[in-house]
């Protein structure tokens, strides 16, 4: 009896002991990421650009709709970047404030990039994980569908869509969303196939965990590393696609604008001595792409330490 | 005599192999991973299953819990045939039969904490338990298997192999199963840890009245923990006897060869021991030999062995051999293993 009491006492002590915090794989990855200087610099730039897009309006002296009649017609002489008249980045050909226009373009471009890769992440991950986990004929049908969709020249289809249904930003989202998830679903399927035969999946199956819960609880969290890396690298690709379409004049329509549209306008007036109209949007465009690629590389190194 | 917990009758697992490029109407090649295995398992008993790699040990275990499709019968508590149940009906029995896996680290999800891992069967089978209650049970179980309960928030990679296997055992036992299937639970661990885990399993079994199917290729481990031992070769039962009988008096030439290969931790005895080397490799399960599957490597094989397959003799010590008997070579029977 005495022994039992002692045993019970020590058991209750051990049960009551303070819980030790664990160090998850995510915490390890964060640590590795923060030691990567290029990636942290990239992240810092991205944060600054995000802040620029969100709060740039409050700094701007002009709204993006107003025309400055004082510089109109004399843009090359009077419309350059200056603090005196409030056009920090100068004005565009019509006398609109380029700073406010760039803020607006940054918003749209970032939104296109982020929405495009969000669609890719959500649809691609679920689609790929389901195909890979279920396997067999379902997998065959699902992946052959992806193959067929991939074989369609998407730029052609995108342009056709925009021409047929009008050039709206919603149409652009739909078009980019339709193509962006294909690669993602392939990558995710491949990863799922290698995860599927791990013993912890088998353990869950043997316990009777439903298939959907296995995908959600065991497969997807183990995929997230790859998905995060690919999604970060996808954002600049989406921005590039949108800019290309806008550069062709098919994407975002006035009065809205995007980096691609601004660069296109700037490139059109390059001969008239208004170089700033090209330089500012291009600068934002380039550093954003660089930053995204650096962050993506950093994430890959942090999440896949074996794979360097 | 008490009712057996599990009675397996004529269990067969056949895989259909299709080669790439086969036409849909081409008959697939059949791989008989397990053919015609029978055994009974009583509550509180441990059945050891031994054999070379690829002889169907793991497939046998997976067939019982419907992880691979099988034919035959697996009668649970004299009433339900587990193999005939649908996925949904099987769910009720999954908490009664739990499994411990070979690779301790690979059987734990690296993104989940130990607490979440151990709680998973509990959350699946008793979804109405409160979070607090689940946590208490997990902590008690961690303490029971020799883990510190305050490490509940740690991740699998922060534990050693032996500790990971304890986590695996805790996960299996949290739903209070009646049968525990251990698929080579110690072969990935080093010897000192093996002993700890084996002793833990034996102790838990005694305390909880568990029945156990213990799969291993290490004969001394199986001898230590099992009440009865089944020897498999190419998916067929070769010999089945109580642990003591099988090790002291093996009747089947395959069992004798297996036992002779176990090293004895005594150089003098080891040198004096008769080794029975087997010629050749395990035949392909795609094209098993006719008659007795062991005849291609058997020192006693005769014409008859190629013609008819020997059936397992009934009784406590069953042997599937036309010429069973103790080993005699140079007038000296095989010493112990």
Question: Can you describe what's shown?
Answer:
The complex is a heterodimer of chains A (308) and B (337). Chain A is mainly alpha-helical and 308 residues long. In chain A, 74% of the residues lie in helices and 0% in strands. The longest helix of chain A is centred in the middle third of the chain and has 37 residues, at 98-134. The model of chain A has no long low-confidence stretch (mean pLDDT 83). Chain B is an alpha/beta fold. Chain B has one domain: Rossmann fold (3-Layer(aba) Sandwich). Chain B contains eleven helices and 13 strands. Chain B has helices at 57-64, 87-94, 114-125, 131-144, 161-173, 191-208, 219-225, 243-248, 253-260, 267-272, 303-307; strands at 6-17, 29-41, 46-50, 71-76, 80-81, 97-100, 179-183, 211-215, 228-233, 236-242, 318-319, 328-329, 332-333. In chain B, a hairpin with a 2-residue loop joins strand 12 (328-329) and strand 13. The model of chain B is unreliable at 330-337 (pLDDT under 50). The A-B interface holds A 11, 14-15, 17-26, 198-200, 202-209, 217-218, 221-222 and B 65, 67, 90-91, 94-95, 98-99, 101-103, 106-114, 120-121, 124-125, 136, 139-140, 143, 148-155, 157-158, 168, 171, 175.
What is the fold's blueprint, element by element?
The complex is a heterodimer of chains A (308) and B (337).
Chain A: H1 2-16, H2 25-35, H3 37-59, H4 75-78, H5 98-134, H6 136-151, H7 154-164, H8 169-196, H9 199-207, H10 211-247, H11 259-268, H12 276-303
Helix pairs in contact in A: 2-12, 3-5, 3-12, 5-6, 5-8, 5-10, 5-11, 5-12, 6-8, 7-8, 8-10, 9-10, 10-11, 10-12, 11-12
Chain B: E1 6-17, E2 29-41, E3 46-50, H1 57-64, E4 71-76, E5 80-81, H2 87-94, E6 97-100, H3 114-125, H4 131-144, H5 161-173, E7 179-183, H6 191-208, E8 211-215, H7 219-225, E9 228-233, E10 236-242, H8 243-248, H9 253-260, H10 267-272, H11 303-307, E11 318-319, E12 328-329, E13 332-333
Parallel strand pairs in B: 3-8, 3-9, 6-7, 7-8
Antiparallel strand pairs in B: 1-2, 1-4, 4-5, 9-10, 10-11, 12-13
Helix pairs in contact in B: 3-4, 3-5, 4-5, 5-6
């Amino acid at each position: 009896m005495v022994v039992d009491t002692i045993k019970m006492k020590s058991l209750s002590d051990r049960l009551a002991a303070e819980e030790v915090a664990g160090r998850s794989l995510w915490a390890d990855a964060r640590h590795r990421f923060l030691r990567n200087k290029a990636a942290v610099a990239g992240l810092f730039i991205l944060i600054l650009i995000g802040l620029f897009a969100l709060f740039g309006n409050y700094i701007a002296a002009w709204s993006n709709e107003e025309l400055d009649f004082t510089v109109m017609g004399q843009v090359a002489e009077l419309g350059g970047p200056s603090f005196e008249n409030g056009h920090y980045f100068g004005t565009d050909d019509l006398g609109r404030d380029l700073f406010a226009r760039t803020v607006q373009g940054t918003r749209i471009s970032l939104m296109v990039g982020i929405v495009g890769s969000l669609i890719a992440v959500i649809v691609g991950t679920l689609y790929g994980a389901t195909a890979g986990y279920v396997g067999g004929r379902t997998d065959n049908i699902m992946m052959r569908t992806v193959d067929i969709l991939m074989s369609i020249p998407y730029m052609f289809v995108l342009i056709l869509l925009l021409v047929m249904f009008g050039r709206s930003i919603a149409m652009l989202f739909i078009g980019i969303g339709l193509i962006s998830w294909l690669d993602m679903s392939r990558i995710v399927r491949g990863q799922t196939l290698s995860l599927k035969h791990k013993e912890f999946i088998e353990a869950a199956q043997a316990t009777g965990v439903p298939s959907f819960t296995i995908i959600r609880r065991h497969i997807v969290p183990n995929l997230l590393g790859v998905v995060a890396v690919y999604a970060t690298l996808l954002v600049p690709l989406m921005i590039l696609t949108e800019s290309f379409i806008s550069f062709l004049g098919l994407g975002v329509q006035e009065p809205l604008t995007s980096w691609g549209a601004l660069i296109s306008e700037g490139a059109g007036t390059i001969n008239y001595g208004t170089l700033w109209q090209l330089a500012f949007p291009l600068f934002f465009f380039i550093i954003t792409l660089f930053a995204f690629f650096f962050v993506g590389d950093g994430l890959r190194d942090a999440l896949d330490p074996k794979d360097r | 005599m008490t009712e057996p917990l599990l009675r397996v009758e004529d269990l067969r697992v056949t895989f259909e192999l299709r080669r790439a490029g086969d036409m849909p109407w081409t008959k697939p090649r059949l791989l008989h991973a397990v053919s015609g295995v029978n055994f009974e398992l009583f509550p509180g008993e441990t059945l050891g299953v031994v054999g070379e790699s690829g002889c169907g040990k793991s497939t046998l275990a997976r067939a019982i819990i419907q992880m691979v499709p099988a034919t035959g019968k697996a009668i649970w508590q004299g009433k339900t045939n587990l193999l005939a149940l649908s996925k949904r009906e099987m769910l009720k029995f999954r908490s009664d039969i739990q499994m411990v896996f070979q690779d301790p680290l690979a059987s734990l999800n690296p993104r989940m904490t130990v607490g979440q891992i151990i709680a998973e069967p509990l959350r699946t089978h008793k979804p109405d338990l409160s979070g607090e209650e689940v946590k208490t049970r997990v902590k008690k179980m961690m303490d029971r298997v020799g883990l510190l309960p305050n490490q509940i928030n740690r991740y699998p990679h922060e534990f050693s192999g032996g500790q990971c296997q304890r986590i695996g055992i805790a996960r299996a036992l949290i739903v209070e199963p009646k049968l525990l299937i251990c698929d080579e639970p110690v072969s990935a661990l080093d010897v000192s840890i093996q002993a700890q885990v084996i002793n833990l399993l034996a102790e838990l079994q005694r305390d909880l009245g568990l029945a156990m199917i213990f799969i291993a290729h290490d004969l001394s481990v199986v001898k230590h923990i099992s009440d009865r031992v089944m020897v498999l070769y190419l998916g067929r039962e070769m010999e089945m006897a109580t642990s003591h009988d099988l090790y002291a008096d093996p009747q089947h030439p395959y069992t004798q060869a297996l036992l002779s290969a176990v090293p004895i931790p005594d150089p003098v005895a080891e040198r004096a021991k008769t080794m029975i080397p087997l010629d050749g490799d395990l035949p392909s399960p795609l094209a098993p030999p006719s008659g007795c599957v062991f005849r291609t490597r058997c020192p006693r094989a005769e014409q008859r062995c190629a013609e008819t397959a020997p059936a397992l003799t009934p009784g406590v010590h069953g042997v599937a051999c036309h010429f069973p008997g103790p080993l005699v070579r140079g007038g000296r029977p095989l010493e112990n293993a």
